[in-house]
Amino acid sequence: MFYILALATILRLILLNQSLWLDESIQALALMGKMGPLMQYALADYQPPLYHLIGYAFTQLFGYSEIALRLPSIISGLFTVYFVVKIGEVIGNRKIGLIAGLLAATNPLLIYYSQEGRTYALTTFFVTASFYHFMLLLKQKSTKSYLLYSLFTTAFLWTSYLSWFVMLAQGIYALWKKRYDILSLQIGATLTLFAWLPSFISSLSIGQSTLVTSPAWGTVVGGLSWKSLPLTWVKFVIGRISFDNKIIYGVLVGIIGFVHLLALRLVDFKKNHLLLLWLIPPVILGIFTAGFLPVYQYFRVLFILPAYLLLLALGLSKFKVIYPTVLVIVIQFILLGYYWVSPRYHREDWRQLVRDIPPNATLALPSRAQNAPLLYYGWDKPILEPSHDVLVGQTIYYIRYVEDLFDGTRLGQANFAKSGYTITSQKSYSGIQLDIYEKWQ
Predict the structure, then answer these.
(1) How far apart are the C-alpha atoms of 296 and 49, rounded to whole Å?
(2) 304: closest CA among 73, 128, 60, 87?
């Protein structure tokens, strides 16, 4: 266990100091009090508010640096690995626990979100811990497990709305097994959400209104397509990377899928139905919900990935030789290495962009609402919206960030041309395009 956690820690420290991207920057500004009172902001957010409160506690102790803001996710990622090992021991033996722990420690997607100052790693930790104590309670009643199950279950309910489907699945299972003691704990945890219900209804109403006025918003935040389900599995096993050459992409995914299938076909799914209960209902219900509200993205169901890795570990443990396990872990290391050396897959590099722009420059964005990273990195001057603002100055630095969403008809670019500006140079940062406009003499 110690060596697995040590490995998990090392892998999660690499590239931890990347620039904050938009959502992380918004979170940072909220914790710094620049978005109004934190509780007011937390209650108005689309996600339940627990992550904001935990983030606030950490920033009071460690400050607002990129690393400090990501500490809750780092710690959550390590606890997830720990509980994956423990669940592996509960459903099998020490060997299965170690294999599952190694898979979780080296999984590219779990590592990526262990380095992000958002709620996904925290939710994954809480759900994994909840399932561990759920399994213990199904085997034997224990005051300690009662308390910890209640704690972790309540916690995941307060960090992610899609995790509510986990509670639904656990509740139906407890009812089926006539474990009314567990069911009463689940009801108690669910009742705590009534305190947040007014804020949830308000956020839901705002989301539906935004979807009507801006359909493109739905596509960005969680649009449903035929690729949603297969993409979930692909990202679970290869992480946030991609390949321009679709042949290479397809061959790689095919090889990984074949290796995983060889292992999974050896799993006794009937015996390990609790892992299926963890894995399948949140995806099906999440996709169903996305049919009328854009909530489904693979990273929003990150909390089911440990269940998949545990099933994979069960299959790999059936082989009489160690080579299949080594192959799967080596593939994960290769994918990690490719991510590490490919800046295009790193987080948006707002930090370097702000460093490169002259301090007295005129800056423009398709929407000023996306200025959180600039504010976090110290930009305190006015920002133009070229789609409708009067353009002034000899040189304008136009950050073409999510232009398709906020200026799909390219009114901003038309305004530049109409006002006598032309692009003289362009710069690319990770996830960001910068066009430098000069006015004709």
Answers:
(1) 19
(2) 128
Dist CA 277 CA 267 (whole Å): 15
- Find out whether 433 and 349 touch, Cβ atoms under 8 Å: no
Q: Report the C-alpha gap between 235 and 24 in whole angstroms.
A: 21
Alpha-carbon span 192 to 124, nearest angstrom: 20
CB atoms under 10 Å from CB of 265, counted, come to 10
Q: List pLDDT tens digits, range 383-424.
A: 999 998 889 888 999 999 988 888 888 999 999 999 999 999
Residue of 27, 24, 50 whose CA lies nearest to 116: 24
For residue 425, what are the β-bridge partners? 436
Joined together, the tokens standing for residue 203 give 């956020």
Q: Give the tens place of pLDDT for each residue, 27-72.
A: 999 999 998 888 888 877 778 899 999 999 999 999 999 999 999 9
Q: Which residues have CB under 8 Å from 97's CB, separation 6+?
A: 84, 85, 86, 87, 88, 89
Nearest-5° angle of CA 181, CA 148, CA 55? 135
Output the pLDDT for position 35. 85
Coil, strand or helix at 225: coil
Task: Give Cα separations from 356 to 112, 395, 431 (angstroms).
Answer: 27, 14, 16
Residues 6+ apart with CB under 8 A from 169: 277, 278, 281, 282
What Cα–Cα distance (Å) separates residue 173 from each residue in 168, 238, 274, 311?
9, 32, 9, 19
Is residue 98 classed as helix, strand or coil in its secondary structure? helix
DSSP code for 302: G
d(CA 256, CA 134): 31
Q: Could you give the CA distance from residue 356 to residue 138 in angstroms, rounded to a whole number?
A: 58
Tell me how crowded residue 334 is: count the other CB atoms within 10 A of its CB.
13
Taking the C-alpha atoms of residue 49 and residue 362, their distance in angstroms, rounded to an integer, is 36
**Beta 432-439 vs 421-429: how paired, if at all?**
antiparallel
